[in-house]
Write a structure and sequence with these properties.
This protein is 71% helix and 0% strand. By secondary structure, the protein is mainly α. α4 crosses α8. The mean pLDDT is 92.
Length: 155
């Protein structure tokens, strides 16, 4: 986890005080897993039930949650790099490595995990930034497109 956070700090050019806030918030600390938290993090892939006795239901929620979180992580990393004006090629390599490490944390250690995550990001979140009706400034659109192209060529 610490390597992922160091990579995020580099990609986003975040000051150490910003990273201290991440630590203090405790988002990556161990915590109890509850039915409501699984529902939240999995995007409602299953109907809400406080009963976690159904292993298939729990597995679907965990799997969907992992996919969603990896996709949002990719979006956040690309957005941080765009906002910080980071070099596309070097930052793209760091993003791929960070997503690969994060995928490993959720058990997605296969060779295609990062590529699959990239494809979900490209089809789901990237259009929200790039469509002509998006309020994103042209410089942001250009930055995201550059990262999308670089990531695609790497994967």
């Amino acid at each position: 986890m610490s390597q992922i956070l160091r990579t995020a700090q580099t990609v986003g050019n975040f000051h150490s005080s910003t990273m201290t806030l991440v630590e203090e918030l405790g988002w990556h600390a161990d915590h109890e897993i509850t039915a409501p938290s699984l529902l939240l993090w999995s995007g409602g892939i299953e109907e809400y039930s406080s009963d976690l006795d159904n292993p298939q239901s729990v597995q679907r929620m965990v799997s969907a949650g992992a996919d969603l979180q990896l996709m949002h992580f990719t979006h956040a990393m690309a957005g941080a790099a765009v906002a910080a004006g980071q070099p596309v090629d070097a930052s793209s390599e760091l993003i791929v490595e960070a997503v690969r490490r994060a995928a490993g944390l959720v058990g997605a250690e296969n060779a295609g995990a990062v590529r699959d995550c990239y494809r979900m990001w490209r089809a789901s979140l990237l259009p929200q930034v790039l469509t002509p009706v998006s309020a994103s400034p042209e410089s942001v659109k250009t930055g995201y497109r550059s990262f999308a192209h670089a990531l695609e060529s790497m994967l």
